[in-house]
Design a protein that fits this description.
about 140 residues, alpha+beta, Alpha-D-Glucose-1,6-Bisphosphate, Chain A, domain 4, 7-stranded antiparallel β-sheet, 3 helices, START-like_dom_sf, SRPBCC domain-containing protein, ASHA1/2-like_C
Amino acid sequence: MADLKLEREFPVSPEELFAWISDGAKLLQWWGPEGMHVPDHNLDFSRTGPWYSVMENGEGQQYKVSGHVTHVEPPKSVGFTWGWHDDQDQRGAESHVTLSVSATENGARLVLDHRELADAEAAANHTQGWTSSLRKLEALCT
């Protein structure tokens, strides 16, 4: 098993940053690595329950991920399970993501903690994907 942790600071209030990580319409604006869009989803991390998203790249390849929102604690954190689907739509190994928000002197800090990934390679791949997604979020919040 492997874990990853990313931290970013944003020049917005904790409440505004929390909206970006929990509200479905806002999530869609930065969800998925650069070059991807989300043609199908039920992204809404403002409540507990199931979620999924289908990310699509420029060549039309689709990647489905789903899980269950395990906790929502406005404006501090959201937690959800995460599992990729294969070509037959079978869900694979489950990991867990927590997005935590805290106040800073100049705005808010986001800590992305993705735990229980299969191995170091999975952690490296997810680090690339999350880093790319967070660049999109940074552009929206500045």
